[in-house]
What we know:
Blueprint: H1 2-20, H2 25-42, H3 50-81
Helix pairs in contact: 1-2, 1-3, 2-3
Amino acid sequence: MLEILGLIVAVTIVGGLARAQGGSATVVISAALAGWFLIRFTGTHFISTEQEAFFLILASWIWILVIVAYLIFNALTRAKKV
């Protein structure tokens, strides 16, 4: 339950960052959610122990962080060009 709440908060932040840059929030949110679900749920077919499941959860959250980092650094580079 707490993980879903965290995902909702993270997706809201991703959408806000995309909207602030004039981009399509729908596309960025879809990419974040699709990557999170693919890593989180299809990755279970490739693991064998519960200890590896922790790394799968971690990898799915790192995917969200990568998208947030891209949006932040993209905004910083656009600000320097102007």
